[in-house]
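Need tokens for this chain, all 308 residues.
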Amino acid sequence: MDFGGVRKELAKHKITNFLVSQNSKLVFQYYQNSKATSSLAKLNSVTKSVNSALVGICLDRGLIPSVHTPITEYFADYLVNDPDPRKQTITIYHLLTMSAGFDWPEFGEWNYFAPMVFAKDITEFILGRDLISEPGTVMNYNSGCSHLLGAIVQQVTGQKAADFAQKELFKPLGITEYKWQELGGQSLTADGLKLKPAGLLKFGQLYLDGGRYNGQQLINPSWITESTNPYYLTYESIGSYGYQWWVSAASLPDGGEIPFYFALGYQGQYLIIVPSQEIVIAITARLQNTLIPLEIAKQLIAKMATDG
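Here are the structure tokens for all 308 residues:
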């Protein structure tokens, strides 16, 4: 198909990188400039979806018993004297789906920024927040949940998330260039990862291929299915939420829809997987409107599906 219209739209919005593969082949690539091809891109909250894969690997190996394991197993010292008994019922599932119930106005008065990074003890800051809903009833965007998941990965593996990812994902995938920011002796699993766009695309292809790469099963396919199910719908303009992945659909002219799931980062970082069309899209940007690349991608997915 002709990608000329897409290229013009990307240039208009000053999107940095936009890569599209279909049937395991790169079919379109857009770079804002020559520097964009070789620079590590700060993925912001796309990091959360990479860490979701690490949680899945831990579960598959029995390092984490179940998604329904209470987090008191890992943070007993923080929760033992907490006056709210409901916090004892928070599980890994609630962290994965951001349905723990904490008062966490990240998409509200905090203006897309979690002040936990300024706390002397981030874990204490997160777990010390009041609960405003029963765990498991409402999804509310919460980077604190993602940080706690990274802390659990570090506890059960004895490695920082960055080191565990290097061993279990990046090295097998041939991703040699990346950076993962740390704070307080822990990888920032909410938003600290930097990858080149090609590396991000490769991680998306791993998910599309059921967690298998070069004959090696890196992620259990059942985890990919489970983690990309739509469990909660809180933000209709974005989509439903799974286990640190978003879920949505592109609308077709005939009224039909093409489901897809995606990782989303502030200012327009995306990794989009469209299983029915064998499409993976990797996007990096620095936009005031984070959702612009998502709309461009939806239109492209529909066009690729209808053009054949």
